Structure formats: C-alpha cells, structure tokens
Amino acid sequence: MTRSRGGRTGAWCAGLLLAGVSAVVGCRVAGTDGVTPVPQLLAFLPWLLAPTGFALLCALLARWWTGLVWGIAVLGLLAWYLDPYGRTGEPDGPPVATLRVLTSNVESGRGTPALVPLIRDRRPDVVFVEECEDTCQDTLDGDFATVYPYRQAVRAAGSHGSLILSRYPLKPTAGVPGTLGMPGAVADVRGHAVRLQLAHPMPPLPRQVGLWRRELGRLREFAAAGRGTPTILAGDFNATQDHAAFRRILDTGLTDAARLAGHDRTPSWPARTASVIGAQIDHVLVSRDFGATAARFLRVTGSDHRALVADLTLYQR
C-alpha cells in the first residue's frame, strides 16, 4: 500500500527524532560521552522521553511499524536508564558524627546576597561556594568569621573564585588543578580526618568537551587516591549521572548524597526552570563512611543554580 503524503511526513518526522535520540542513548549504553552535542543532551536524558513519545505517535499515525518497534526499543532503554546509578544503604559501624553540608554556585557572586540568609537559616557545618569572586568572599568572611572560623579559598575574579567555610579545623591541601578554582582541605570532625574537596570543572561547551572530560578525570583521581579516608567531594560538577565521566568518579567508591536521600533526579540547573525541566549537576559525593538522611535543593535568587543542602552521618569503619 502506498502511504499518503501525510503518512510519509509522519514517518520522516518519527525517523529523524528517533535517529537523534538513538545516538544519545547509544552513547549512554556504550559508556561514552561522545562529542557535541551528545554530552549536552546527556544532561537532559530523562527529558528525551518527550521526543521519543512524539516519534512513537507519528509512527503510529503513519502506520510505520518498523518505526513503532524502533521507538518502543528506545523508550525501553530510556526507562531503564532512569534508574539511579550507585549504591544505597547505610554503612556498617557505629555513627560518630553528624554534619550538614551546603554547596552553592552563586554565578560570579550574583547570588551572594541570597546565600547569606540561607546559610544563617540552614546552619550548615561545611559550606562549598563556587564562582565566589572577591566581593563574595569578603561578604562571607565578614558575615561568618565567628561562625566559620576556618576557610580555604581560591581568590579570583568572576567564575574562577571558590571558597570552603567550616566549623571544623581545616588543614589546607593542594586542591585539584583546573581552569576554575577548586580548593581542598582536610577537616578534623570530632577527631576524625575528613577530606574536603570543592568541585567545579569547566562545563561541556561545544569547543571545551575535552577540557571538561580532563577536569572530571582529575576529580576522579582525587577520589581514587584517598579510598581509606572519609571524603566529601561537593560542588558544581557540570555533569549528571548520565555522563560517563561523572560515573567514573562514583565508581571509585563515592555515592551521591541526593541519591541516598531519594532525590537522585531532582534538577539543580537551570534554577528558573528546575521545577519543570532541568539537570542535576550540583552534587555532594561522599565515601562509604557516610550515610545521608536528607537532601534539599533550594532557590538562591540571583544564581542560575539551586543550592544543595545534605544532612550526613559519619560512621566508624
């Protein structure tokens, strides 16, 4: 039977949509982030259900049965990869300390005025602030010098500055080298050494995917180097669990606190649309010494990221 013009159009539309989605899903299956635009689209993998569903409808209306089978297969793979990545469950051993961690990208300091009352309200024990330039750091130092007497910072302009604030004593470390500031420290949490590292690799912009991949690789090297020490790696990773480079960090033994608290797919960016559509690129990753009892993503006016607050429990091995 010859298809009508409308049927051919529907089949073409379905084919084009399924070809695009299949390329992205194929990279997810193969464990690679591919090349532009795949890394950018992988950040929104769950939302690819929408064009896949539309392609199925087009194939059905066009009576294109091959396309219908193709679409069902792609839909099944997308549904499979919606399942969160990483371990769950509490560590063995007795609890020795509880601590609250907050991470926030303040978009070159523009979110600082809103972050100050958020810190006062949530009272975290450790604060990671990305894109905290000189004015941001001066504001936080001035407002919280007594509450957070310990700090480690990379002072720089614009998006390059970053800051760690802590109630616990800190021993500075070299941090992780990157285009943007990524300071690190070792905290003394009630007699237990805890490695703290701020994460802020470059985003996977079209001409910077290689740089993004390399900087995530350096964060992986940091995570793998201290498997015997409790570790918190937190910040704006510019990556989701659907990126292979991010999963390699988790494969060192770290777990996403939001995953442990049941918020593995809650978007953190872009903040304006996060309640409708977005990607979870802000994370608090913890070693197997930690459990997480709660995670909340909170709006920070002036920033394009939502802040993440995680309640953690440190267990003795």
Provide a quick synopsis of the model:
The chain has 317 residues and is α+β, with helices and mostly antiparallel strands. The protein has helices at 5-30, 38-42, 49-61, 65-81, 112-122, 134-144, 209-225, 244-250, 257-260, and strands spanning 95-105, 126-130, 150-154, 162-166, 170-172, 184-189, 192-199, 231-236, 255-256, 282-286, 290-298, 307-315.
Could you characterize what this model shows?
By secondary structure, the chain is an alpha+beta fold. The protein has helices at residues 5-30, 38-42, 49-61, 65-81, 112-122, 134-144, 209-225, 244-250, 257-260; strands at 95-105, 126-130, 150-154, 162-166, 170-172, 184-189, 192-199, 231-236, 255-256, 282-286, 290-298, 307-315. The strands form 2 sheets. The protein has a 6-stranded mixed sheet. Strands 5-6-7-8-10-9 form a 6-stranded mixed sheet. Helix 1 packs antiparallel against helix 3 and helix 3 (49-61) packs antiparallel against helix 4. The radius of gyration is 21 Å and the shape is elongated.
Order of helices and strands: HHHHEHEHEEEEEHEHEHEEE
- Cα(first) to Cα(last) distance is 69 Å
Total strands: 12
Secondary structure: helix percent? 25-40%
Shape: elongated
Task: List its traits.
single chain; 317 residues; alpha+beta; six-stranded mixed sheet; 9 helices; 12 strands; elongated
Which secondary structure elements does this structure contain, and how are they paired or packed?
Elements: H1 5-30, H2 38-42, H3 49-61, H4 65-81, E1 95-105, H5 112-122, E2 126-130, H6 134-144, E3 150-154, E4 162-166, E5 170-172, E6 184-189, E7 192-199, H7 209-225, E8 231-236, H8 244-250, E9 255-256, H9 257-260, E10 282-286, E11 290-298, E12 307-315
Parallel strand pairs: 1-2, 7-8
Antiparallel strand pairs: 1-12, 2-4, 3-4, 5-6, 6-7, 8-10, 9-10, 11-12
Helix pairs in contact: 1-3, 1-4, 3-4, 7-8
